[in-house]
Amino acid sequence: MKQIKQEKTLGKFEKFKLKWGIPISIVVLIIFLLLPCPKGLSVEGQRCLAVFSAAFVLYLSEAIPASIVSLAVVPVLAIFNIVSIKDALSGFSSTSTYLIVGSFILAAAMLKSKLADRITYLIMLKIGTSARNITLGILMVNIVLAFMVPSSTARTAMLLPICINIINKFRGESREKTKFGANILLTLCCTNSTISSGILTSTISNPMAVQYISDASGRTVTFGEWFTWGFPPALIMTFVAWGIIQIMFKPEVKELKGGKSFIQGKMNELGKLNINEVKAIIVLGITIILWAFGDKVGVDSTTACLLGACALCIPKIGFLSWDDCKNSISLSVVFITSGGISLGAAMSSSGTAKWMAEGIFNSLHLGNYSAATMIIILIIVVQFMHVVFVGTATMANVFFPILIGIASVANINPILTIIPSAMMLGGYPIIMFFNTTPNILCYDTGEIGSDVFPKFGTILSILACAVYAICVLIYWPLIGMI
Fold it and tell me: How many helices (DSSP H) and strands (DSSP E) are in the chain?
């Protein structure tokens, strides 16, 4: 199998960011602290604005890992007396944090039992092994796994070796890039993202959005509600993305020689359904049912997720060890999520988010538009701001507090500003290769050039904005969201 490249040469801009990111962030922090307090902003709000601005620079520069930046937010908020240490740690006790923790444990069960591999090969075998059908199979696997594996990065990492094997089998002895290689890898990373916008637990920014809404309004968005609002447009855009890829990167041949026997061989290696797979299917099935209908019996998404995760660790009922659990949980994701939620809460309580939102609201003249038009404008702005961001969690930490503030200024439900923007944020980080880790993983194989993403991503972004604008104007009012 072709080895995935672990390193890439840094360009001048990347080197500049790494070298000067920390000094610039310190200068930004000092400037904002020393400037006269802006009108309408409290002293605590000004300090919070300084911390937010410095963190923003560090997030963009990546001079310090985003997880460390998010963790450092906690003591800095307390040291500057913006909030108490108890409030600064509030993000680490949020329901979103533990929804993510539980979901990682559920994903570990999928991996250890080999259920994820079985699902992948079974779908590909059933759909067929023509070049087009193989990519369609990857799309279908992405849809299925999005309900079970909470991380788009984890899903991409699971499927990438399979895709590379298929590409190498298609290419034979040649080492040249192929349209089929670009096709299958773009399908992998892009449909992985697009379908994530419609499922609450499938990517980190979705539960973060729910937490921000809960903190701002006390309203809890359920798994079923998110699915009803987001899955139809996400499913449409997932197939639209696949269709565009088929047009732009039409495979050189129609049939993959020996493809069926290759995939059948992988299925034969797995053998019959083992006991751990059966246990995983039962627990995951019950968890998904509770995610969908738990609100009717008083069970929220986080509770259902943690119950399922714990069940998988109980002797005889489950099969996971503590080592399996702790090795499956990404502290980076936990820190980015929790620290970001803490920063967002501090921005809200200090008035910073509302002050920034008022500035944006007035400068864009959003008060002159209807709520629907304002939401569409926000959707477009958020989508094309992907150009400068690395990572959806980082982008969420920057935008969600401001979007909450805009809802407050416009006197509308924060669901209307957060949910549509969150769907764009988590589902369509496809304009640049560095927008999200799945893109980077596929780019680093050497099968896709960096220029491919803006060409494909710009087209898909325009279509996505159009589809979600239709949702704002027709679908969401029809089902009572707006």
Answer: 23, 0
Q: pLDDT band at 172, cuts 50/70/90?
A: low
HSE-up (13 A, CA, CB side) for residue 354: 16
Q: CB under 8 Å to 18, separation ≥6 — which residues?
A: 10, 61, 62, 63
- Amino acid sitting at position 212: Y
Q: Which phi and psi angles does 275 have, rounded to 5°?
A: -60, -35
For the residues of 11-42, what is the DSSP string, one character each?
Answer: -HHHHHHHHHHHHHHHHHHHHHHHSPPPTT--
Structure tokens at 428: 């369509």
Give CA separation, 34 vs 37, 40, 49, 356, 473, in Å.
8, 17, 12, 18, 45
Radius of gyration of the chain (CA): 23
Domain ranges of the chain: 12-479
| CA–CA gap between residue 266 and residue 256 (Å, rounded) | 16
In whole angstroms, what is the distance from residue 138 CA to residue 389 CA?
27
pLDDT of 196 above 90 = yes
How far is 141 from 122, CA to CA, in rounded Å? 9
Q: For residues 434 and 187, give the distance between their C-alpha atoms in angstroms, rounded to a whole number.
A: 16
Which value, to the nearest 10 degrees, does the dihedral of the CA atoms of residues 410, 415, 421, 423 take? -170
The pLDDT value recorded for residue 174 is 64
Contacts of residue 452, Cβ cutoff 8 Å, sequence gap at least 6: 182, 186, 433
For the stretch 78-134, pLDDT in tens is 999 999 999 999 889 888 788 878 888 888 888 899 888 888 788 778 887 788 888
The tokens describing 248, both together, are 């732009």
Work out the angle between the directed axes of helices 371-384 and 392-410 (0-180°, nearest 10). 160
Span 315-343, pLDDT tens digits: 989 999 999 998 888 788 788 878 888 88
